[in-house]
Write a structure and sequence with these properties.
With 288 residues, the protein is α+β, with helices and mostly antiparallel strands. The chain folds into three domains: 3-66 and 121-143, GHMP Kinase, N-terminal domain (Ribosomal Protein S5, domain 2, 2-Layer Sandwich); 72-117, no CATH class; 147-284, no CATH class. The chain contains eight helices and six strands; from the N terminus they run E-E-E-H-E-E-H-H-E-H-H-H-H-H. The strands form two sheets. Strands 1-2-4-3 form a four-stranded mixed β-sheet. A hairpin with a 2-residue loop joins strand 1 and strand 2 (14-23). Helix 1 (42-52) crosses helix 4 (122-192) and helix 4 packs antiparallel against helix 5. The protein is rod-shaped.
Length: 288
């Protein structure tokens, strides 16, 4: 399910911002963009998100500032500076030039000064990262919840359509057997003319057809799948994978009904049902 969350936490001179962007995915897949200096917070973020989310590809963006007085220091390579100065004095003496090298100019010489980032307090950085991550995740989940409410209405409506198609198939099935009996009787009577029809044999043929084309078990299972599907929609637990499985079973039942059906009306209803189930399957991929 898509979503976005952002949070910024500042504490003790450290400021960290976490942005989360999620899109649909069958499993929880995390991608990170952060400064190399704080790469150690990745495990902390994985722990927080792993406890809050179960599905989706989530891009994690981390921005960090250390505004503490001890965050940086400047080192001066005095040995190298001394070599520069000795070389400058030697050149001044050899070429009779005035030695005008001052401190400011000397510190600008290549590699004389170096700005060094202080080692980060890992515990402190991980603590504010976890806090920012939880806040961003709460915002992302709120956005997902709003989208989820719309998905719920859509999926519940589609389940009613599937149920209606199933009921129409169930009503049509007995009619198919009766129509077969009437057509078979007419065909036999036409072939035999005045010869009396063997009613017992006719009943046997009709019973064999009814058994071969019988879809009672599939209708019962399809009814059960629709009921389970709705129960999962109403569940507070993450149910995306379970819904995905139930949708596969719905499709399987429609396939079986279609293979047994010896009737154009039922075949058309099966096609409509499979189309609706496919729409449901696509939407279920958005559910955690």
């Amino acid at each position: 399910m898509t979503g976005f969350g952002r949070a910024c936490v500042e504490k003790d001179g450290r400021e960290i911002t976490v942005e989360l962007k999620s899109v649909n995915h069958r499993y929880l897949d995390l991608g990170f963009r952060m400064p190399r200096a704080i790469g150690f917070v990745e495990d902390t973020i994985r722990g927080v998100l792993g406890g809050e989310l179960s599905r989706g590809h989530v891009d994690v963006f981390v921005f960090y500032k250390n505004n503490r007085d001890d965050a940086r220091r400047v080192n001066v390579d005095t040995h190298l500076l001394g070599e520069y100065l000795k070389a400058a004095r030697a050149a001044a003496e050899e070429f009779s030039l005035r030695d005008d090298v001052g401190l400011s100019a000397a510190l600008r010489l290549p590699d004389v000064t170096e700005i060094v980032e202080a080692d980060e307090d890992r515990d402190a950085v991980c603590a504010i990262t976890a806090e920012a991550c939880r806040l961003a995740c709460a915002e992302l989940k709120a956005m997902r919840a709003r989208e989820g409410a719309k998905l719920y209405d859509d999926l519940y409506g589609k389940s009613r359509t599937v149920e209606d198609i199933k009921d129409r198939i169930a009503r049509r099935a007995p009619e198919v057997v009766e129509e077969y009996r009437v057509k078979l009787t007419e065909r036999i009577e036409k072939m035999l003319g005045s010869v009396e029809v063997d009613r017992a044999r006719l009943a046997t043929e009709v019973a064999l057809f009814a058994d071969k084309a019988g879809i009672d078990e599939e209708i019962v299972r399809l009814t059960s799948h629709v009921t389970q599907f709705r129960a999962m929609l109403d569940s507070a637990e993450p149910s995306g994978r379970k819904l995905d499985f139930i949708v596969q079973e719905m499709n399987r039942e429609f396939n079986t009904i279609g293979s047994k059906a010896n009737d154009g009306d039922i075949v058309n209803l099966v096609i409509a049902g499979k189309g609706e189930v496919e729409k449901i399957r696509e939407q279920v991929q958005n559910i955690e």
